[in-house]
Amino acid sequence: MACSKDVVTLEMLFEWKRWPTKERVEGLQKFGLLAEHVACPKCGREMFLNVRNDVTDGYNWRCHNYKCMATQTLRKGTWFSQSKLSINTILEITYMWTRRFTQEQVRYETGTASHTVVNWFNFCREVCLHIMQEASEPVGGPGRIVQIDESLFGKRKYNKGKPRKCQQWVFGGVEADTNSCFLQTVKCRDAATLIPIIKEFIRPGSTIHSDCWKAYDRLGENGYTHLTVNHSVTFVEGDVHTNKIEGLWKHAKDRVPKTHRKQSMMDGYLAEFCYRRLRSGETCLFRAFLADAAKLYKPAQ
Ligand SMILES: [Zn+2]
């Protein structure tokens, strides 16, 4: 049971269906999911919210200029654009994604076709990709420790059974104190591939802990303090640890479905994994996610 008035529950979400429509539109404007002001695409004058009983959303935008009278859908450029689903159903699916409902549960609860649910889960992961690539800060910094490592997803147990087609190397790092992380699929594990990723995702001046993989040999020349742990000897050597990144691999592998380990799908799942960690301190992930979706899907103004 939610303990804060800021936390949206499924019960509240279903309650929205009984809201007067104007109140619902204003609620979505506050989230940034719908525009508050729209300029007429034809004459440039401000448009107003117009009650329309013949459109699904109950409203559209209409130009103030009586000679123009141009109209525009509420949804243009928004999280709700180009979908035949009602805004309420899209919000329900989005809510259920943030609450980790399975695709089957969402299909059952909303009566939506399974391919539609698959699409919306993919759209949610695209928001995660955007936030992790564009809007999140690099990890580490002077005086901070970042553990890095590479791991093969889709590896066979004990090298038995048929070779898997869907094997994918992933490179990642985790800040020891904050657990902030980044994960990137990589085609190979050489220095030419990994060093640019390190420079993009880890602040200069960080202390980097890793194993003795040769691609990391020149980290010291790139503005980092580099300390290594020799895995063949012991997991933890002195004060140099890679336990956090080892734990990260375990959790990440649990979260990436074994049937979706092609690079194109994995990028989305890894971004979702990092995004949920990034937002783990939020009181209500649904509210936080809607605000993040509004950063990628900016309503037409
Ligand atoms: Zn106009």
Question: What do you see in this structure?
Answer:
With 301 residues, the protein is α/β, with parallel strands linked by helices. 37% of the residues lie in helices and 14% in strands. A five-stranded mixed β-sheet has the order 6-5-4-7-8. Strands 1-2-3 form a three-stranded antiparallel β-sheet, with no helix packed on it. The longest helix has 22 residues, at 114-135. It is elongated and about 75 Å long. The mean pLDDT is 87. Zinc ion binds at residues 40, 42-43, 45, 63, 65, 68, 70.
Per-chain topology:
Elements: H1 10-15, H2 21-30, E1 47-51, E2 59-63, E3 71-72, H3 87-98, H4 103-110, H5 114-135, E4 145-153, E5 168-175, E6 181-186, H6 191-201, E7 207-210, E8 225-228, H7 243-255, H8 263-278, H9 285-296
Parallel strand pairs: 4-7, 7-8
Antiparallel strand pairs: 1-2, 2-3, 4-5, 5-6
The protein binds zinc ion.
Residues 40, 42-43, 45, 63, 65, 68, 70 line the site of zinc ion.
